[in-house]
Amino acid sequence: MSSSSIPIRLENVTQRFRVIQERPDTLRELFSKFFRHESSYHDFDAVKNVSFDVPKGQMLGLIGRNGSGKSTLLKIVAGVYRPTAGNVQVKGSLAPLIELGAGFHHELTGRENILLNGLLMGYSRREMQEREQPIIDFAEIGDFIDSPVKQYSSGMYMRLAFSVATEIDPDILLIDEILAVGDAPFQQKCFERLQNFRKGGKTILFVTHSMAQVSEQCDRAILIDKGSIMADGRPDEVIEVYRSSMVPEAVGAH
Amino acid sequence: MWLKLLLMIELVRETYRYRELIWALALKELKIRYKRSILGFLWALLNPALLMLVLTLVFSTLMRFPIPHYAIFLLSVLLPWTFFSQSLSYAVESVVGNGDLIKKVRVAKLVFPMAAVVSNLINLGLSLIPLALLVLAMRHPFYWTWLFLPVPLLALTLFTLGMTFFFAAANVYYRDVAHILQVVLSAWFYVTPIIYPLNFIPEQYRWIFKLNPLIYVINGFRLSVYYGMLPKAPSIAASFVCGFISLFIGFAIFRKYQDDFVFYV
Question: Could you tell me if A162 and A179 lie in one domain?
Fold first, then answer.
């Protein structure tokens, strides 16, 4: 496959965060810090020198412990962060499903949020109006579609968010753990849709802590630890590396 | 000069590109402002109408200024001022307030201050209806110069946008800015000839008041609605120069820092 048709390419990407212990949130703190020449932060690389490509039609699972940098990586691909160093190429339309209800406004109804969410992702009003009914049909939340989303359960939130993100038919879909809150039948329905996506040549980046989902659904997995790639390959192999890496620390903790 | 032009072209292009989103966010803001009130959107009309009623009663009975139809004199610039100060008050929190969103979705940050300005522009437009009714009720002449209002309105919108860009960006880094802004706005209100005419100020101090960039645009509103006159060309030019300088500086600063907002919201 030629490099121009690779939808996601990361080259030596580093994301540095300034971790501020006592953030000068006010001018007073700033001045007092300034005059005492204190620095109250340290730099922390959430993602360190990471490179990988994701070809079309691949569903890639990102696994790793809490705080390993998976979500940061997802947000770099989503364009939320501009990385400190390295190159990120993302080709095609992209829908992020990062955390529940990002882009939903609590006071607006489900129907109003469909439009707002679509506009936020760069789709036009007309495109969203055409997709409104299919989105509502897939979400199966009944009359709640005309209630403010603050009255939704987390499952309903997720149903609507997933429906919007997939019904707009993006080239790249980013999913961060949110499938965990759906009930079993809906999860099943989501995975069926994801598999159809994959067959249609779409690219899916999938963060989860469910190893079963990775080995069943993904055709490749990457293990992230402390911001770096520890393993990259077939899901079962990568999961094995992950499991064995957990053992010493589990022993040490007890 | 070229840089300035390029920046303005970029701003226009981005605004056009995100017009539907800006509009949807502005409507959302209004919807939420009037949510759970029985009269809903009617408040956008009732608010200025009731304010006018109070002002008219106070100034026609209690405090008598030597200015005929003082309520109209006042409201002709109080309404645009309210647009200006409300836009700033909303916009200063607009980026920080949407922090959750900015941290999860890639979105053009400029839509947030813009939506704040647009929603207040809608409010200003609605408040002109009760003002027109008041003009009729008080038998103040309804001048053809009302048709000129879009001109000062455009200059004021440019000026307001620039200021909102600056304050919204600054507040991301230092949350004191929102508090400072309130003080600045209340001081600014009194040094601007809103409740008094400029000729109340002794001649030798008047030049200081003319340093206020809002004075030219305020003049345009008052002349058109209250006096039935058009502002002179230099005054119109000055209002647009102030508008563009504000917009240029505000947007340049906002644009410079917008990619880093996500780390501070």
Answer: no
A16 touches chain B (CB under 8 A): no
Pairing of strands A59-63, A220-225: parallel
B79-126 pLDDT, tens digit each: 999 999 999 999 999 999 999 889 888 899 999 999 999 999 999 998
Spell out which residues of chain A touch residue B174, defining contact as CB-CB under 8 Å: 25-27, 30
Asked if residue A97 belongs to a domain, the reply is no
CB–CB of A80 and B35 under 8 A? Answer: no
Distance of CA A207 to the CA centre of its chain: 6
Are the C-beta atoms of A163 and A178 separated by less than 8 Å?
A: no
CA of residue B247 relative to chain centroid, distance: 13
Is ipTM over 0.90?
Answer: no
Distance from CA of B100 to the nearest CA of A (A): 7
> Same domain, yes or no, for A52 and A29?
yes
**Is A237 found in the same domain as A116?**
no
A95 touching chain B per CB within 8 A: no
Distance from CA of A9 to the nearest CA of B (A): 18
pLDDT at A1 over 60: no
A149, A168, A187 — which closes off a domain? A168
Query: Is there a single domain that holds both residue A20 and residue A119?
Result: no
Last residue of a domain, one of A168, A199, A222: A168
Q: Answer whether B152's CB lies under 8 Å from B220's CB.
A: yes
Q: Domain check: are A222 and A198 in the same one?
A: yes
- Which of A96, A112, A120 faces B21 most closely, judged by CB atoms? A120
Contact across the interface for B262 and A80, Cβ inside 8 Å: yes
Q: Please check whether residues A35 and A136 belong to one and the same domain.
A: no
Q: What is the C-alpha separation between A230 and A48, in angstroms, rounded?
A: 11
A204 and A178, same domain (yes or no): yes
| A79 contacts in chain B (CB < 8 Å) | 106
Provide the domain limits for residue A27.
Answer: 3-92+171-253
Which residue from A28, A105, A119 is facing B21, i.e. has the nearest CB? Answer: A119
Number of domains in chain A: 2
For the domain that residue A73 is a member of, what is the CATH number?
A: 3.40.50.300
Chain A hits for B175, CB-CB cut-off 8 Å, are 25-26
Q: How far is B113 from chain A (nearest CA, A)?
A: 15
Whether A81 and A177 map to the same domain: the answer is: yes
- Number of alpha helices (DSSP H) and beta strands (DSSP E) in chain A: 8, 9
Place of tokens 């707002």: A116
**Residue bearing tokens 């009760």:** B130
Instruction: Say whether pTM exceeds 0.80.
Output: yes
